[in-house]
Design a protein that fits this description.
With 229 residues, the chain is of the alpha/beta class. The protein is 31% helix and 18% strand. The protein has eight helices and eight strands. Strands 3-4-2-5-1-6-7-8 form an eight-stranded mixed β-sheet, with helices on both faces. A hairpin with a 2-residue loop joins β3 and β4. α1 packs across α2. The protein starts with 9 loop residues before the first helix and ends in a 13-residue tail after the last strand. Bound molecules: adenosine-5'-diphosphate (ADP) and magnesium ion (MG). The site of adenosine-5'-diphosphate has 13 residues, from α2.
Length: 229
């Protein structure tokens, strides 16, 4: 874990605590991480929040469901051969794809080979069966996904999952991006559990090194966060 290119900060731990509160009444703790656009910090955040949950002893599974531009195997420096696409294609069992103890209490399923039909695979009964299986073995399951405004992959999970954490990147994500994403999420009847603002270094603490996270709740998903996030 020491040589992973991941930095867990107090801000991640605050985000973790808020996520735990928002899921406290949920029967399952399966969360989709997404954002409007590419390179807004979805995968990095997914990995870091997973690490902070594992750090407190919860058994965590990270799933790379970005079957177009997978990243988790790079962040955790693991081989990406047996992964999610092969499970969903019925080629392997989920146990054959799990990378155990990538960090203490943290297992990872990489994307597997890039399939021709990601959205279809992710929306399939095989995905529902896979999530049902693994949810019996883990306290938290975090699913890394592609951006909402490019493809529908992150919106196909329906009630297979508890909800969505929506990443907004300081200085990058535009207000219209957020509005468009929230419309798409609403159309798909998705539930936003919280917004996470990434890349906002507080002036008074350089140690946060541009990894300050803010977590805000919006009971009404139509209420988009302010333009200058
Ligand atoms: N909080 C952050 N502060 C600064 N850079 C970040 C932060 N989170 C991610 N990055 C960087 O931004 C780039 C895109 O991150 P990534 O997590 O792969 O985004 P996405 O999954 O949304 O495409 C990477 O180079 C990553 O190291
Ligand atoms: Mg990513």
């Amino acid at each position: 874990m020491a040589d992973l290119p991941l930095i867990v900060t107090e801000a991640h731990r605050t985000a973790r605590t808020n996520l735990m509160f928002s899921l406290s009444a949920a029967d399952k703790k399966i969360v989709v991480i997404t954002s409007a656009n590419p390179r807004e910090g979805k995968s990095t955040t997914c990995a870091n929040i997973g690490l902070t949950l594992a750090e407190m002893g919860a058994n965590v599974l990270l799933v790379d469901a970005d079957l177009r531009k997978p990243t988790l195997h790079k962040l955790f420096k693991i081989i990406n051969i047996n992964g999610l696409s092969l499970i969903l294609g019925g080629l392997i069992d989920d146990k054959e794809a799990i990378n155990e103890n990538v960090a203490e209490h943290l297992d990872v399923i990489t994307s597997g080979m890039i399939p021709p039909n990601p959205a279809e695979l992710l929306a399939s009964g095989n995905m529902a069966a896979f999530l049902k299986n693994v949810s019996e073995r883990y306290d938290y399951i975090l699913i890394d996904t592609p951006p909402v405004n490019l493809v529908s992959d992150s919106l196909v999970f329906g009630d297979m999952v508890s909800g969505i954490i929506f990443i907004v990147r300081q200085g990058t994500t535009k207000h219209t991006d957020i509005v468009n994403s929230l419309r798409a999420i609403e159309m798909a009847q998705g539930k936003v559990l919280g917004f996470l603002k990434v890349g906002c270094a507080p002036k008074d603490d350089k140690a946060y090194n541009n990894y300050n996270y803010k977590y805000a709740y919006h009971k009404n998903p139509e209420k988009a966060p302010p333009a200058s996030v």
